[in-house]
Amino acid sequence: LLEPLDDGAVEGQFDAILGPLIWDLGHIGNAEELWLLRALDGRGSRRPDLDRLYNPLVQPRSARGGLVLPRRRETERYVDSIRHDVLELLAKLDLNDSNRLLRDGYIYHMILQHEAQHQETILQSLDLRQNGRPYPPALRQKLPAPGVVDDEERVLVAGGVCTIGTVDTGHAYDNERPRHEVEIPAFQMDRFPVTCRRWLEFMEDGGYRRQELWSRPGREWLAASRCHAPQGWLWAGADGWVLRRFGHIHPIDPRTPVQHVCFWEAQAFANWAGARLPAEEQWEKAASWDPEAGRARLFPWGDDPPTPCHANLDHAGWGPAPVGSYPLGASAYGIEQLVGDVYQWTASEFRPYAGFSAFPYAEYSKVFFRRGYMVLRGASWAIRPIVSRNSYRNWDLPQRRQIFVGVRLVWDAH
Ligand SMILES: [Fe+2]
Q1: Is the pLDDT assigned to residue 140 strictly greater than 70?
Q2: How far is the CA of 132 from the centre of ligand 1 (A)?
Q3: Ligand 1 centre from 116 Cα, in Å?
Q4: With contact defined as beta carbons under 8 Å apart, do 109 and 19 qualify?
Q5: Gap from CA of 55 to ligand 1 centroid (Å)
Q6: pLDDT value, residue 236
Q7: What is the Å distance from ligand 1's center to 39 Cα?
Q8: d(CA 56, CA 28)
Q9: Of 276, 277, 283, the residue nearest 164 (C-alpha)
Q10: What's the pLDDT tens digit per position in 248-261?
Q11: What mean pLDDT comes out for the span 11-30?
């Protein structure tokens, strides 16, 4: 991800809400050292001076641009030497050890997911960047061709008991446990994520001006941000709206899921459509529950890991795919593109499930509970498959729109 960039782009900061890319790179190596060398093998700190610089709790994103960080070459050498030692140690370890960190490879999966999440953050920064050469210079993978679909189709999810959360201890994060039963009344859900076509209709109907569609904090955000379109949408006069993505200017494909909208925008859109954002339990049931088998699936389509036929993940296409592109990825209810393309905002604040216990450290999720963070479900095109599963819970502040997030609506069943 960093290779096509010059040193100035890697070491500078594009936006106050995201640190410089060089911080993410050094922090990826530091987390790897902390867990895969020090916690697992009792080694001392390689560079005690770096531990504080790369601690995200000591250095909030807004402060990272002001830190005196090692330069690019030094950071690369540090990260490479950590990786070398990590692989050497891995060859000697027994993953069936009674050590809970090692069992089922948990700590390796955690660190792989951590790196994937920072890769996604790096892509968020590059997408926000205003100046510099378009990125990526020459990388565009082919996505499957979509069928012709009705982007407003709704699907009925029958009422009844289902399970939420997971018992998996090899990959899942602490906040996805414990698994528990929930009774959810019937509801209708969008078969597809909300498309740019629907979003344009909302805008043309005065969506960003009609105060009655917005909640009070939403109106405050609207007034302060002066936004009147999703992040990256530019008004091009006679050409209408166009999209700036990684510095490239594209026409807006009306069939693709809208992305880069904040929670307040998603909520106003839902009000405009006479709908609601799903509670996170509704989202998870729609994605995971198999009513015939009476059990939850790991992924919407079943228990098999994602392939490029199931979902738009893993930086494929460098953006969301048109709705209808992934019929093989449908859930048991026939709902599509739940995982892949864009995360979807839910109406749920990030909270622990009853019986939650922090593992392996409180700072992963516990410190974020009940702090006004909203839950995002699904997985974006910018995340690696290892971070995509039905039980995965992402979260961010309601005003954030640098995330690759979109919208999916629910209605009462009639
Ligand atoms: Fe991190």
Answers
A1: no
A2: 26
A3: 10
A4: no
A5: 8
A6: 94
A7: 16
A8: 11
A9: 283
A10: 998 999 999 999 99
A11: 91
The reported pLDDT for the residue numbered 74 is 97
pLDDT score recorded for residue 295: 98
pLDDT at 240 over 60: yes
Q: Which pLDDT value is given to residue 141? A: 64
Smallest CA-to-CA distance from 28 within 108, 110, 114, 125 is with: 114
Q: How far does Cα 91 stand from its chain's mean position?
A: 32
Instruction: Measure 388 CA to ligand 1 centroid, in angstroms.
Output: 17
The dihedral over CA atoms of 223, 401, 131, 383, expressed in degrees to the nearest 10, equals 180
Which residue's entry shows tokens 């916690």? 39
AA identity, residue 306: P
Does residue 138 have a pLDDT over 60? no
How does residue 317 score in pLDDT terms, banded at 50, 70 and 90? Answer: confident
Angle separating helix axes 72-90 and 21-33, nearest 10 degrees: 30
- CA separation for the pair 252, 197 (Å, rounded): 9
pTM greater than 0.70: yes
Nearest CA to 38 among 361, 405, 374?
361
Can you give the pLDDT at residue 97? 75
Cβ neighbours for 223, distance < 8 A, ≥ 6 positions apart: none
C-alpha 117 to ligand 1 mean position (Å): 8
Indicate the pairing of strand 405-406 with strand 343-349: parallel
The number of residues in the chain equals 414
- 408: exposed, middle or buried (C-beta count within 10 Å: 0-12, 13-18, 19+)? buried
Average pLDDT over residues 310-335: 95
| Phi, then psi, of 281 in degrees rounded to 5 | -70, -35
Task: Look at residue 94 in the predicted model and tell me its pLDDT.
Answer: 83
State in Å: Cα 79 to ligand 1 middle.
14
Confidence class for position 61, pLDDT limits 50, 70, 90: confident
Residue written as token pair 């000591």: 58
> How distant, in Å, are the alpha carbons of 50, 59, 402, 409 from that of 66?
15, 10, 21, 41
Instruction: Return d(Cα 171, Cα 106) in angstroms, integer.
Output: 6
The rounded Å distance from CA 28 to ligand 1 centre is 7
- 257 bridge partner residues: 195
